[in-house]
Design goal:
With about 350 residues, the chain is mainly alpha-helical. The chain has 16 helices and no strands. The radius of gyration is 30 Å and the shape is elongated.
Length: about 350
């Protein structure tokens, strides 16, 4: 493949663009000054030497021409190096991080599941870290074209979003997500809600996502030999997101992060036929979780922008469908155990054990 390079952090162009404004203006001015001052001194000296007959006119003009060309060449060289300093620093980061390069197909397929949101924020999607991270650096290193995310930054974000500050709480959240943190609630709502309440929820999800009602209701039903998808895209994608940020926070090893990411990605590729099918289901789960139009509308625009505008190479990675036999029972049976337990909790008590029945006759 080509030389490994990603978008500049925070930007959506597939590769870093030339930019002289990455803290380079002062250096450019100093360079111009150091080159032009000697030239400005040399020209009057040469003219004086010509006047007193020390050198010929053609010699003077020749020297001036050569010096001028050298000055222009130096200015172009320095400007070019400064224009593409962002590319040079990105390569430096990969080198210091142990020689990061293109990931194998399986890992790229997994990270492709984060591509729409990464494109929206200009985050990296070809490396485990989605932003240059302190955890990768062997020593404290200064970069001028992008900021390094510290472990403390990621810990603070983890705490705010997930209440995850240790490997123990990371494991707990991952287990909950693999158990269907939101999918099992979605499955139980179908059984426990009254028809009126359930229909109101379906209408609300339709309004929030602008996805058809028939698609929303189909998420509850197995399709042929395929299990019900519920909102598994939302649960499983969050495993990938949490694993990436927890690695950057120094809570888990790179190996552990990849183990969980690849496991979640395999389940996703066994449930969905292609990226849009996955992301539509993710949007249903996101709407079910947030119940907020501002957020769900932004998510719809993220999907649209990625499909229409993104030129990143990750978009061209093929989608490999996995066999259903890799799926755990909780997915295959539609969170059956949880739903049955919830039904029992909400079922009327047997005669003689109903609350308030104190009739001993």
């Amino acid at each position: 493949m080509s030389t490994f390079i990603q978008n500049h952090p925070g930007e959506q162009d597939a590769k870093p663009k030339g930019n002289p404004n990455h803290n380079n203006q002062g250096l450019l001015y100093v360079t111009l000054l150091l080159l032009c001052i000697p030239l400005g001194i040399t020209i009057p000296v040469l003219k004086r030497l010509t006047t007193i007959g020390k050198i010929e006119n053609w010699t003077m003009y020749g020297i001036i021409a050569v010096l001028s060309l050298l000055t222009i060449a130096m200015i172009i060289l320095v400007t070019k190096r400064m224009m593409f300093k962002n590319t040079a620093e990105q390569k430096k980061y990969y080198r210091l991080a142990g020689g990061l390069t293109w990931l194998p197909q399986e890992k790229r397929e997994a990270l492709q599941l984060e591509a729409p949101s990464c494109y929206h924020t200009g985050s990296w999607v070809e490396t485990l870290e989605y932003w240059p991270a302190e955890i990768r650096m062997p020593r404290k290193t200064r970069f001028t074209t992008f900021q390094i995310v510290t472990k403390e930054d990621r810990l603070a974000a983890n705490d705010e979003a997930w209440k995850v500050l240790s490997e123990k709480t990371y494991n707990e959240r991952i287990d909950q997500l693999f158990a269907g943190m939101h999918s099992r609630l979605f499955a139980s709502d179908k059984q426990l809600m009254t028809d009126q309440t359930r229909n109101a929820m379906i209408s609300r999800l339709e309004e929030l996502t602008q996805l058809p009602e028939r698609y929303i209701t189909s998420c509850w039903e197995p399709q042929g030999s395929n299990p019900a998808i519920l909102v598994w895209a939302f649960d499983l994608q969050r495993i990938i997101e949490l694993s990436r940020t927890s690695f950057m926070a120094g809570l888990i090893t790179e190996q552990k992060a990849w183990e969980q990411i690849l496991k979640a990605a395999d389940y996703i590729h066994a449930l969905f036929d292609e990226p849009d099918a996955f992301f539509n289901n993710y949007r249903i789960g996101h709407a079910y979780w947030s119940n907020d139009f501002k957020q769900t509308n932004e998510m719809a625009q993220i999907q649209k922008a990625y499909n229409n505008n993104c030129k990143w190479s990750i978009k061209d990675v093929s989608w490999t469908r996995k066999d259903h036999n890799i799926l755990p029972d909780v997915i295959l049976n539609g969170c059956k155990d949880y739903v049955e337990e919830e039904i029992k909790k909400n079922a009327p008590n047997s005669i003689g054990f109903q609350p308030g029945n104190n009739d001993n006759n």
